[in-house]
Amino acid sequence: MTRWPFLLLMFIGLWSLSAAAHAQPMDDSQATTEQSCSFGLAKGEASQSCHVPFPAGCLVAHIPGADKPWTTVSKGGNTICRFDEKGTDGKTKITGSCTRCKSDHCSVQFSVRFDCSQSSH
């Protein structure tokens, strides 16, 4: 019996723990929180959208060193996804949408980083 699958799983587990330990801010940079929404589509399924929850008292964070909002769209399959300008005001609501799925299946996650340092605790 070979042990390499077990050793590989152990390495991945230790690496993920190490990565999580280093994910904390180590200097005076602003800590952020992330909110997301996601959905899946079957082949031919019509366009869909979802709303990223907007934490009360928080502002959309900006990419460090840039003036752009700190957002990410991760998708799989043949569809086009983006943050919807009509359904997003950047202060109270953020909406992501995708076109019809043209592959066997599609999936998407819209993520937004928020700076909640100004909110009262």
What does this structure look like?
It is a single chain. This protein is α+β, with helices and mostly antiparallel strands and 121 residues long. It is 15% helix and 35% strand. The chain has 1 helix and 7 strands; from the N terminus they run αβββββββ. It has one helix spanning 4-21, and strands at residues 33-42, 48-52, 59-60, 71-76, 81-83, 94-98, 105-115. The strands form 2 sheets. Strands 1, 3, 4 and 7 form a 4-stranded antiparallel sheet that branches. The longest helix is centred in the first third of the chain and has 18 residues, at 4-21. It is elongated, with a radius of gyration of 18 Å.
Defining traits:
15% helix, 121 residues, alpha+beta
Class inferred from helices and paired strands = alpha+beta
Oligomer class: single chain
- The overall strand count is 7
Strand content: 25-35%
For the termini, the CA-CA separation is: 55 Å
- The radius of gyration is 18 Å
Write the layout of secondary structure elements.
Elements: H1 4-21, E1 33-42, E2 48-52, E3 59-60, E4 71-76, E5 81-83, E6 94-98, E7 105-115
Antiparallel strand pairs: 1-7, 2-6, 3-7, 4-7, 5-6
